[in-house]
């Protein structure tokens, strides 16, 4: 029996453990590709300017980290924020700040109110409303009085701190025209 060996050559040679299977054609091991098995494959792919240097290993530029060269934020992005560039958070609606740590209220809280959650103001004593825009009069305004700047503004028919006092009515007769007229006295 005669054994015949045929030798094939690849020029240039096969890299990274590749085998020459036909003239100038390499069979590459898992994780490598290219005509000479010179290209490493990374899954997930290297992002942000990173390069795959061996299977599954990215060489990343400063500010980005393996395995896929995602951005580094040395402080964690809070409240659902995401790290989009080196030490830079992208904040969801309703938050701001370098770490998305600050709740945003639009319109702003008024009268000393504090924005504690997105679009939610904590109101100081004596105020209420979605932006703390209303004042509370103590005691409350009576007889259709309206609280403005912590004071009751009374209708023409009442007076007092809480509009609790009715104004006396007086009836006068105009003798020349013989008509009755109601007049308010303070």
Automatic annotation (TrEMBL):
Keywords: Disulfide bond, EGF-like domain, Repeat, Signal. One of its GO terms (molecular function) is signaling receptor binding. One of its GO terms (cellular component) is extracellular region. It holds the Pfam family EGF_TEN. It comes from the Eukaryota. Residues 6-38, 101-133 form the EGF-like domain. Disulfide bonds join 10-20, 28-37, 105-115, 123-132. SMART domains: EGF (SM00181). This is EGF-like domain-containing protein. It comes from Capitella teleta. The lineage of its organism: Eukaryota, Metazoa, Spiralia, Lophotrochozoa, Annelida.
């Amino acid at each position: 029996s005669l054994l015949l060996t045929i030798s094939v050559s690849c020029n240039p040679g096969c890299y990274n453990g590749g085998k020459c299977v036909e003239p100038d054609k390499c069979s590459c091991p898992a994780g490598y590709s290219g005509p000479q098995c010179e290209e490493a494959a990374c899954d997930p792919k290297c992002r942000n300017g990173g390069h795959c240097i061996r299977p599954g290993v990215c060489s990343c530029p400063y500010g980005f980290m393996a395995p896929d060269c995602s951005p580094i934020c040395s402080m964690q992005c809070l409240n659902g924020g995401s790290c989009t560039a080196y030490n830079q958070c992208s904040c969801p609606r309703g938050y701001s700040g370098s770490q998305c740590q600050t709740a945003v209220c639009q319109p702003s809280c008024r009268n000393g109110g504090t924005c504690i959650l997105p679009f939610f103001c904590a109101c100081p004593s004596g105020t209420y409303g979605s932006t703390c825009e209303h004042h509370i009069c103590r005691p409350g305004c009576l007889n259709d009085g309206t609280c403005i700047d912590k004071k009751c503004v009374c209708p023409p028919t009442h007076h007092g701190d809480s509009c609790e006092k009715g104004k006396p009515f007086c009836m006068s007769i105009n003798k020349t025209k013989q008509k009755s007229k109601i007049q308010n006295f303070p």
